[in-house]
Amino acid sequence: MCGRFAFFSAAEAVQQLFGVDDASLAVTPQYNIAPTDLAAGIRQTDSGRSLGMLHWGLLPFWAKDKKMAARMINARAETVAEKPAYRAAFKSTRCIVPADGYYEWVTRDGEKHPWYITDERDRPLGMAGLWSSWTAPDKSETRETFTVLTTEAVGSIASLHHRMPVMLDDVTAEHWLAGGDSNPPALRDIIAVGHATPLRAWRVSRAVNNARNEAPELIQPANDDE
Q: Which of 7, 29, 69, 151 has the fewest Cβ atoms within 10 Å of its own Cβ atom?
C-alpha cells in the first residue's frame, strides 16, 4: 500500500514530465503527506492538464460524511472497476498523483522501520489515482478527494511490502487521463503494466512516523544508531 508520500519537485519538472499546461500553482514542498492531507493531483480538463490540490482519501458522492476518507487512501487495481466506492471514478475521473517518493514500514526486532522508495532516475513518480467531488449532505462543505491505486509489488520492493502504487509513464499517463471509459480493457492493461518504473529504497529516520513532522531530512538515509 501507500500510506505516506513526499512531493517537492519544482513545477517545471511536473510540466515537463506530465505535460501539465498550467503548472503555475504554487505547491509547497511536502515530505510527509498523510491521509486526509491536501496533495497535488493532475487532471485532464477541457483546456488541458491542470495541477490542483485534492484531499487524500476518496469520498464517493454518496458518502454520508467524511469520516471514511482515511480508509479510502488506496484502491486495489485488481478490483477497482467493480467496487462501488471506486467504479464511477474509474470510469470517468482518473488522475495522476505526482510524488518524489513514498514510504513503507518494515518490522524488525519488534519495531517498525520506515523506508523511502523513489525513482532510481531521480525524477518524480506518477502514481495512478482516481478523484471525486464530494458535498456533505447538509451542503456545509464540498471537497475534491483522491485515492492511489495499488498493485502487487515486484522486484526488490516486494521485500519491503507486498503492495505498491501503480506507476505511470508518458504513454500510459496519456491513456489514463483520457476522458470516459471507452476502452476498459486498455485501462486494465495500464494497471497491469504500471509497475515498470525502476525504483530504489533506503531506510529513513523514524521521525517520519509522526505525521506532524515535515522537513527535507525525513527522506535522508537513517543514521546507523537508528
A: 29
Q: Chain-wide mean pLDDT for the chain?
A: 89
Report the alpha-carbon distance of residue 111 to residue 113 in Å, rounded: 6
Cα 51 from Cα 28, distance rounded (Å): 13
pLDDT at 111: 86
Cell 544508531 sits on residue: 225
Level-2 CATH architecture, domain 5-219: Alpha-Beta Complex (3.90)
Give the separation between CA 107 and CA 201, rounded to whole angstroms: 16
β pairing state of 142-152 and 74-76: parallel
3-state secondary structure 190-214: HHHHCCCCCEEEEEECHHHHCCCCC
Percent of the chain with pLDDT over 90: 62
Helix residue ranges per DSSP H, 10-136 = 11-18, 87-92
Beta-ladder partners of 74: 148
The pLDDT of residue 155 is 82
**pLDDT top residue among 26 and 142:** 142
Give yes or no: 78 in active site. no
Which SS3 state, helix, strand or coil, does residue 30 take? strand
Q: Which of 2, 78, 111, 226 is catalytic?
A: 2
- Each residue's pLDDT tens digit, 158-192: 899 999 999 998 888 888 998 666 566 678 777 77
Rounded to 5 degrees, what angle do the CA atoms 124, 128, 130 make? 130
From the list 12, 95, 104, 120, the catalytic residue is: 104
Q: Please measure the distance between the N-terminal and C-terminal CA atoms of the chain and give it in whole angstroms.
A: 24
pTM of structure: 0.93
